[in-house]
Amino acid sequence: MGSFIQKEILGMQWIYSWVGQLLKHMGVDMHTRMGGSIQFFLYDVIKITILLCALIFLISYIQSYFPPERSKTIMGRFHGIGANIMGALLGTVTPFCSCSSIPIFMGFTSAGLPLGVTFSFLISSPMVDLGSLVLLMSIFGYRIALAYVAVGLIIAVVGGCVIERAHMEDQVEDFIRMASSTSIESPTLTIPDRLDYAKDQVVSTFCKVFPYILVGVGIGALIHNWIPEFMIERILGNTNPFGVILATFVGVPMYADIFGTIPVAEALLSKGALLGTVLSFMMAVTTLSLPSLILLHKAIKPKLLGLFIGVCVIGILLVGYGFNLCQGLFI
After folding, report:
1. Could you tell me which of 28, 182, 280, 297 has the fewest CB atoms within 10 Å of its CB?
2. What is the pLDDT of residues 242-274, one digit of tens each?
3. Residue 181, domain member (yes or no)
4. Whole-prediction pTM
């Protein structure tokens, strides 16, 4: 039953077979690199699109019960590490990319929530969400998916605690610290209202992320069928002790959400890249993308921005090398 769920429901292997049969009827030779690339591309795009729309709808429906005002109230009830844990968990049901999370982070900060708590949210939101859990399960299996989510939450909680203890409240830009926060009573939504909200979020989010899915799957198809396996193993395999560092810093200039990054990670792993190296790449792309850092620089001063980057990089590197050492437990 577990294998059936993994392959046919989450992995949707029936789509892979269906795409293969369709291409054969169209005269495409599936044994060539081009034919294999087309099959990989169409299968991944269709599968991710189906999962993406279903997950966005479900997560958005859940989000409708946690508007910003209510989230502030809930988070304000917790203190210490418990508040950081709540901030990280809240990030799992919020926007899918770092640039979308930053405005919410700014709102939480201006509302007077502890700085460490808001950073736990900021780290967790793009790196870990319910959608990534299901999509990771569909490709890598439940062990890797659960481990990825667990270490992502740990990085978010620990990172927030470190930033809290640094006492850098003065490193937040004045226009955020001095912003007045008014408590707005959230309207009561009916179930049809929540369903409409979820549908609107599906359309809005899908339009934003679909181009990145196409790019990510395209890169994955290129890696999967055109780049020799020995090359990936040499650069990101166990023969290169700096593979994790390389993957992390290559990921920073890129901008994609988790849905556009997973196809690339899938192809790298199948070609011989180590698991921890692949996870470090995914975390760097989703959490430390250059556009999001530029946007965040508008809200916080260089010293705090540097601490945020340093905490995330150290956490990502530790995860990478740790998973490389324990890869046998997951694969």
Report:
1. 182
2. 999 998 888 776 666 666 787 888 888 888 889
3. no
4. 0.75
Q: Is residue 51 part of a domain?
A: yes
Euclidean distance between CA atoms 27 and 176, whole angstroms: 60
Q: Which residues touch 22 (CB under 8 Å, ≥6 apart)?
A: none
In a domain, 237, yes or no: yes
Tens-place pLDDT, residues 191-208: 899 899 889 988 887 887
| Residue ranges making up the domain that contains 59 | 2-175+210-329
Closest CA to 90 of 62, 121, 67, 63: 121
Span 28-71, pLDDT tens digits = 888 888 888 898 889 888 988 888 788 778 878 877 877 666 77
Query: SS3 for 26?
Result: coil
CB 180 within 8 A of CB 329: no
Residue whose C-alpha is closest to residue 162's, from 325, 7, 308: 308
The token pair that represents 191 in the structure block: 């179930």
- 241 φ, ψ (degrees, to nearest 5): -70, -15
Strand partners, 172: 300
Residue type, 317: L
Q: Largest Cα–Cα distance in the chain?
A: 65
- Is 81 inside any structural domain? yes
